[in-house]
Amino acid sequence: MNLRDLPFVGELLGAGAEDRVFDVLLLIGPLMILFIAVVGRSILTSAGAIIYILSFISYIIYRSISTSGIA
Known about the structure:
By secondary structure, the protein is mainly alpha-helical. About 75% of the residues lie in helices and about 0% in strands. Keywords: Membrane, Transmembrane, Transmembrane helix.
């Protein structure tokens, strides 16, 4: 089974920016919120949210530097 075969995910990926990492990060965000809502706030969920936010920001900075030709 391919990720594009899942309902709604294929449409989201088709409308995306042809960047798998960015698409995956966008799909993980709502799942992270749902996970925190179900499990509740704890050290584990707070650490997961911080890691998610830092990885999202880091990837955006990385892509902006790599496409601008600075590095």
